[in-house]
Amino acid sequence: MAEKLSRRQIAWRIVQDIHEGMYVNLGIGQPELVADLLPPDRDVILHSENGILGLGPKPTPEEADDDLINAGKKHASLVTGGAYFHHADSFAMVRGGHIDVCVLGAFQVAANGDLANWTTGGDDLLPAVGGAMDLVAGAKKVFIMMDHNTKDGSPKIVEQCTYPLTGRHCVTTVYTDIAVIDIKPEGCVVREKFADMTMDELQARTGARLTLANDWHLLATPNVG
Amino acid sequence: MAEKLSRRQIAWRIVQDIHEGMYVNLGIGQPELVADLLPPDRDVILHSENGILGLGPKPTPEEADDDLINAGKKHASLVTGGAYFHHADSFAMVRGGHIDVCVLGAFQVAANGDLANWTTGGDDLLPAVGGAMDLVAGAKKVFIMMDHNTKDGSPKIVEQCTYPLTGRHCVTTVYTDIAVIDIKPEGCVVREKFADMTMDELQARTGARLTLANDWHLLATPNVG
Amino acid sequence: MVNKEKVSLEEAVADIPDGAVIHIGGFGGVGIPVDLCDALYRQGARNLTVINNGVASGKVGLAALIGGGRVRKIICSYPRTPDPEVFEKKYRAGEIELELVPQGTLAERIRAAGAGIGAFYTPTSVGTPLADGKEVRVLQGREMVLEHPLYADFALVKAEKADRWGNLTYNKSARNFGPIMCMAAKTSIVQVREIVALGALDPEAIVTPSIFVDRIVNVPYPTKET
Amino acid sequence: MVNKEKVSLEEAVADIPDGAVIHIGGFGGVGIPVDLCDALYRQGARNLTVINNGVASGKVGLAALIGGGRVRKIICSYPRTPDPEVFEKKYRAGEIELELVPQGTLAERIRAAGAGIGAFYTPTSVGTPLADGKEVRVLQGREMVLEHPLYADFALVKAEKADRWGNLTYNKSARNFGPIMCMAAKTSIVQVREIVALGALDPEAIVTPSIFVDRIVNVPYPTKET
User: Fold this and answer.
1) Do chains C and A touch (3 or more CB pairs under 8 A)?
2) Which of B3, B20, B32, B49 is the catalytic position?
3) Whole-angstrom Cα distance, residue B7 to residue B13?
4) What is the CATH number of domain C17-118+151-218?
5) pTM beyond cutoff 0.95
6) ipTM entry
7) What confidence tens digit (pLDDT) does each residue in C151-185 have?
8) Would you kindly state where each structural domain of chain B is located, as residue ranges?
9) Which CATH superfamily is domain A7-218 in?
10) Cα–Cα distance, A118 to A128 (Å, whole number)
């Protein structure tokens, strides 16, 4: 048995919490995997900041249109029923609370729901924020998709973010390679944990105090690669 | 010779200050006469608050479409090159300074450019403001079309408005049946006056101090009915 | 399969409770969702707050709601009609409350509610009685008034075509307040002349994208204000 | 006869002075008016302030303006590109100023400039470094930041079709910032792939009405960002 979920498995897990009819914005990078794992018979309508509702799958090279890209600046397609609009209308959807779920990556999530995902404040990369601050301020639910720990083993779920914030009190749920954790008024509540990992083991890899939900269960996913 | 301009003649005079390519909003009532007197070969694009650019002439009963009305709630038409949009976009045009000229009626205009044209504050009619306050706040030029005096002979150009204001310091020029008067920082400046009326005669019919422009001339119009 | 179509007007308005705040589209009788208003009248909800450009005339639609005593308060820009029976009589009798708002401010306040804007400054109405008691600040060298969003629990809107997701187009000047009201209400209910297949609306020409629409009802021959 | 068509890119940008503030449309290379930017490069204006979502990449268009040292300041949401040569080097050398703005706030600030809104409150960026020094107020129970309009002297925009009055349509996701930038600039200059007869654009599907457009130039085969 694997020791943790693959990224596609995390994406699959997130898909279980995205329901028919939802309007969803997927962040650039790992969250894009969520689109690949949505069942084709589930009408989930994807929003792209650059003026698209009904973002479709990656086109073939022949179908690619240079005027049709997603927020990650890659060629995209439009599903039947999709629509185009301008940037102010696009962010009216975001800021106005019309997006049911956004899925974003993170550097850090704090027990109070604070999120840091746009800059480490270091000098290695220029600070670039894009639409992240608008999304976390406006989406009804903010799902975070990330590894539970950094490459060097540090926790990414912390008592207080040390990196510059993207937003305060905005995270709904964190989906990691070993747990599903809801951010509630009382703090981090483990809804699911991986395989036979104990709470002590999970707590040891987490920088904020965890509690276990009464109705917690095992984080189990099929093999989706 | 007539003692004053007819309403159509006032409208004709206003038309002389509306140039090719201007975007113009005409208030309900008398200002609508301006549309009738625009030369057909002059591209002046009429804006209607209810989401129309390129308002055309009154349609025949056969052509009338119940979904196409002007701001005065009468059947209208759309000229070639016209466009439809929603109310927030319509008033973005108004408030954002994109309308070159609006033409409105008035109860009173003050020497400082204050305008009162939406309610007399009395109890006879319910107060109704419509888009007047937005128009006077946003249009580049605010032309007032009115009789110089009320039916009982009182002046409508005054030192200070006594009726509730529509806007402050907003009037550009007043076109009456006997004069064309620019509202300038120094007050009311007569640009044109009717026939052989003397300044004393004009002043006697006006509630604010007038000065005569150096380049003033006679207010003369053709017979346009 | 997402399908926002309701089988009847009755079903579409069934859950509007007493005391609801309702955006009602239309300007000068054009774009008024008369059939939805009439269904709401039959449904019986009372004590409503209605946001509309005017106060309606005639005997059906919004006029019926007002005339029937269902409306506690109207927020509008133009509460004057040729027929004083419906609104004016009730207003002068103190039976209905009126909040008068300049038309552009009305539209922008509705848009603000839909776009998640907390409040905005506008030059409209500075120095007039409609700015009384409002915060004024100098911005860009001009005095501006602070205005707040106009949220609603429900929007009743009339459009021309819809697909089952709720993408909408309108007809000519009947567009007016529809698109911004769909944005600004928790639940937007739209009567449309025609429901078309998903994909039949040009994605470049959809005026209201489906995200702003909750329910649609097909009313091929809409009732007019009379 | 109103005809906003200019015969050449050069004529369209001839009067842009040193020090101008310029909205430049486009997102991720799509909808960027590369040919207008190149014409502006050849024209020689310096000391420009540019508002765009990013900082461009490649060697033409906005990248050429930045690389050529014509841009004093960039206001954008995403100043990061795969190629650090153009912007990053200049930024780290202190040769170009950067104002970082969340993408939705950027769009709304541009719209506010076009719509005559003096300032607005948004929940976006509250509690983050991008709200530092900004006024915060509680509205609708949430902390909100006060944001100001982003005016420009000129807008350079790319669209799909125009008529001689300047009515515009766009193509797919190339619409992005074009419509709001046309609204927000004193003079908006649009390169279009095709100029069509007046009346050829459906009045229901015009995205930018002519009132927001000052000049159009026909560029049937637009240059791409490379």
Assistant:
1) yes
2) B49
3) 10
4) 3.40.1080.10
5) yes
6) 0.98
7) 999 999 999 999 999 999 999 999 999 999 999 99
8) 7-218
9) Glutaconate Coenzyme A-transferase (3.40.1080.10)
10) 7
